[in-house]
Amino acid sequence: MSDDPTRQEGTQEGHDGPVNSDQTNEFKEDPWTEGPEVPPGKGAKQTSGAPGDDAETLRERQRLAQLEMMDHWIGGVLTEQRRTRRWKLFFRLMFLAVVLVALSAALYSLFWDSPSVATPTQRHLGIVEVNGVIASDSPANAERIIQGLNRAWDAESAAAVVLHINSPGGSPVQSQRIYAEIMRLREQGDKPIIAVIEDIGASGAYYIAAAADEIIASPVSLVGSIGVIYAGFGFEEAIERLGVERRVLTAGENKAFLDPFQPLDDDAETFWQGVLSQTHRQFIDDVRAGRGERLSDSSDIFSGLIWSGEQGIELGLVDQLGSLEQLSRDQVGNIDWVDYTPSLDPFERFTRRFTEVAAEVLGIRAPNTPLRF
């Protein structure tokens, strides 16, 4: 430490040599960096190299800085590529998982989904479920129910084939297919076919039940509704108010007679009513063939009205009031039944439910046929 007061006031010792006190005023507090402000030229001097470096050294320093920058850039690119590969691998594994699930479900339905393989030897009821809307794209479709009927019919230890019904009806074609198969089995006469109606067995569901040897229902079950319905909308005035032009090209003058954006004239209405009436007549004839003289003479039976199980007894629509448990005790002496309805594999249930929800959300769900039982 020097004793010269002039030196203490005028200069300060630093790493680069003496610095004048006037120069220290240049190192002001920088509010952006929260550190000393670097005078012009100082930063450039420090980044370009140390004092006394020659041109070759400076070029080498610049080259190293460029290499470091390049390393950082390459590192970022490699990191992004690794992320992309991870996502690709994830989606590939997800796709593989879906394929494996579908394959497993298919193998299960082919080799293990068969209750007839392990049919019990003791007497029991052979149950076939008719649950929900009857349609080709629903679990209550003709192919599935007919397969269950034949499984239960072929089971030697099954004392009776029981249609366990809880359905509001549905497709005329699907209902007629099931009806015809029940009538075919019924004519063989080997074992009774009994329909047990739970909450509802109406319209197409009652069509199926009418083919059975006997119909059992709860006193508060809903049965009947023997009729045919077509429902639609007319938007011709709405489309005119919106200023939208409807363009429909057809080959055949009546091809678009049910177009909701065109008025339904008298001739088209008369024709369509004839189709409904003929289908209704087929419904009535099949119910009469199945129920025979048990039906009452009341004209209201075929009017489309729905009745309680207790009212159905009076009209001949139902043979007796009871339940599945009571029927099992009467037929086999205890509560014992086996479900012969082919089960849906998990993947099919998932895709079916997903498709139904998506169609309902998008508003594009429509029945396969405009006529409904």
Automatic annotation (TrEMBL):
InterPro entries named among the record's database cross-references: ClpP/crotonase-like_dom_sf (IPR029045), Pept_S49_SppA (IPR004635), Peptidase_S49 (IPR002142), S49_SppA_C (IPR047272)
One GO term (biological process): proteolysis
Transmembrane portions of the chain: 89-112
NCBIfam families: SppA_dom
EC number annotated for this UniProt entry: 3.4.21.-
Coiled-coil spans in chain: none
Source organism (scientific name): Vreelandella titanicae
SUPFAM superfamilies: ClpP/crotonase (SSF52096)
Biased composition range(s): Basic and acidic residues: 1-16
Region (Disordered): 1-56
Domain Peptidase S49: residue ranges: 188-327
Record-given protein name: Signal peptide peptidase SppA
EC class of the enzyme, as a word: hydrolase
